[in-house]
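Structural biology now treats backbone shape like a language. To illustrate, our science desk offers a sequence and the tokens encoding its fold:
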Amino acid sequence: MNTPLSNAALSLAGTGVPVLPLSRGKRPVGNCPSCADGACGGRPNMLSAGPCVCPAPCHGWAAATTDPGVITSTAWARSWRVAAAVAYHPGGADLTVVDLDNPDAVAWARAALPPTRTVGTTRGEHWIYRGAMRSVNAVRDGVDLKSTMSYARWLGPGTGTLAPLPEAVRELAARQSTAARPTPPPVPLPAGGGECRHRTPVYLERGIAMAEQRITEAREQVHATVYATFLAVLATHGRCGCLTEAHIARLFAAAQAKGERPRHCTDAWTNARARLGV
């Protein structure tokens, strides 16, 4: 039986916006028994990374979908019963949300950014632009950018017309990244050809081939699959020093063959490394 939230999610998904159930604490709801009630640690499925080992993305932005069969499935039925709201993956709909969390942030946006669709929140406003980018928090006081690899609460259609993502917003992310988020150090490669210290080179080759296959066989949510696969590879081999530039190039090539842009591949790889601290 559908619930008011699942019906709202279906309506939103019908417009091409990937959706997911959200708990009262603004955390994604686990959509399988292993992840129910935060049993997996509350982390989105990252294949072999972390305690969640679901066969497909279970919760979080990576699980956001427009597939009505998934939204109304038995696996998601409990999630909608315990959820408090509908969330969505802005980047999956080619959108960016400028989350303005206080009156000063709203005043800044009105002075610095072009008008666009606006949605009221409990503390400020969401300004929604057409175009995806890397998600970054705290680009200035009270301002977060939510797009790829992120989610936002659905608070209604808002008012106004969607405007193209302005360069000023991208510059905010670039400035914050340079000032406060230095690029993680490259994955160390051991001298002597990159032999894996704790597993055989055959194991590594099989792992890379399986990662390529997983990306190649993705039929939907390609961006989420690429990120999850990169994270899985790094979780297994990112600290032992066995990955080489040739391995990474193979993964990037598989992703780009599915339509991912080089910049998106780089962002996914960098975000995966940052999450794992490698």
Remarks:
- The longest helix spans residues 201-216.
- The beta strands are 19-22, 85-88, 95-100, 117-120, 125-130, 136-140, 143-146, 152-153, 163-164.
